[in-house]
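Quick one before lunch.
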Amino acid sequence: MPEDLKDTSRLCLHTITTKPWTLEQCIDGCLRHDIPWITVWREHIEPYGAKEAGRLLRESGLKVASLCRGGFFVSASGRGREDARNENRRIIDEAAEIGAPLVVLVCGADPEVPLPEARQQIVDSIHHIEPHAKAAEVRLAIEPLHPMYADTRSAVVTMDQANNLLLALGSPWVGLAVDVYHVWWDHFLRAEIQRAHESLFAFHVCDWRVPTRDLLNDRTVMGDGCINVPQIRGWMEEFGYRGPIEVEIFSEELWAMDPERLLKRIKNGYLRST
Ligand code: ZN
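Model of the zinc ion complex:
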């Protein structure tokens, strides 16, 4: 059941949502608006370094849901794939340093690599980095992306494909990040959420703006688009998800707004339409 109209105990802010802010401003914004969870993007860590970012986060008392993002494993060259694995090992270390128990993976795609081969490369690379994740006690979440990103961002574009990768990997350290923006259209969504059950590691929310004017940065706040977010959240909870509800919104329009006003709008959207 959804919380009452004041409960924000599961609300989580992705720092990319308030992109113009620094990490410190994001932290302060969360504290002012009773947002207890934060997911940190690497670009927000970079100006501070992971050690200092970790200190700021620990001192804030906020709970860190995850680090965004790792992945991009696919490459036509063996050297490219090896570099990506090493980069992901560094990202796992960074997650451990900032106290993030999870790294979200955008798995990668390369127009020169056929999609089935790309998916095999993804399985191989996650298999290679999994021991590093386990040693660091950092879980990995495969995020299937919307099929429009199959050219350069992810060869994993359905929940079915993501669940199949989990099956191939067979590790309790690897699960799924379900983002409503990417999977809302899928006729088999409920069945695939059920299939994932204990592998449901993260839940990202926003809304699909109608009409969408830009395929990269035109998401909107929950309740302002055409996704039935409460229904998808209901399925996540029906099959065992109890974690934070993470607001991740890429939008040139909303980034141009005063972030303070945006956070009020997000909280409202979360309480009424999530
Ligand atoms: Zn997401």
